[in-house]
């Protein structure tokens, strides 16, 4: 989130980070965003007694009130319902710590090490109802080095995430990359 917020401060960046919305009251990102002058809001998912769609409808209301046009998920560790994904289709992106379609879900660094791959990385993708299955906007690769463990590999991937996500967001926000009929379109 901070990488996106910092990139958006550039005069030529094609998007404004207008709101940081969290499902966890007191999340560290809220304080950081507020310090940067970014509006913040919280919709605590626990208040909805496992009714995911009711939670997402409340989130959607906050997004609508704040006139949000594009969502860049950053550390939002909840699987979205098809209702929310379809409502924001083509305007909902996420970053994932693997070279999709490889290693969906969690513990991607462990999965990469166990698979014995020589390259790992991260992907920015449009969110679709299927988990980590949306069309890939951009990827960054890192080598898997002899002696790597989950932590060392994670740190190299994270460094790439911090540069890749702002670039991908700029591509989508500027209209140079879009989602049309379930596929990537490049202008």
TrEMBL record:
GO biological process: 'de novo' IMP biosynthetic process
Domain Formyl transferase N-terminal positions: 6-169
Keywords, comma-separated and alphabetical: Purine biosynthesis, Transferase
Enzyme class label: transferase
Reactions catalysed: N(1)-(5-phospho-beta-D-ribosyl)glycinamide + (6R)-10-formyltetrahydrofolate = N(2)-formyl-N(1)-(5-phospho-beta-D-ribosyl)glycinamide + (6S)-5,6,7,8-tetrahydrofolate + H(+)
Record: residues binding (6R)-10-formyltetrahydrofolate: 52, 94
One of the record's GO molecular function terms: phosphoribosylglycinamide formyltransferase activity
CDD domains from the UniProt entry: FMT_core_GART
Protein name per Swiss-Prot or TrEMBL: Phosphoribosylglycinamide formyltransferase
Native species: Bosea vaviloviae
Underlying gene: purN
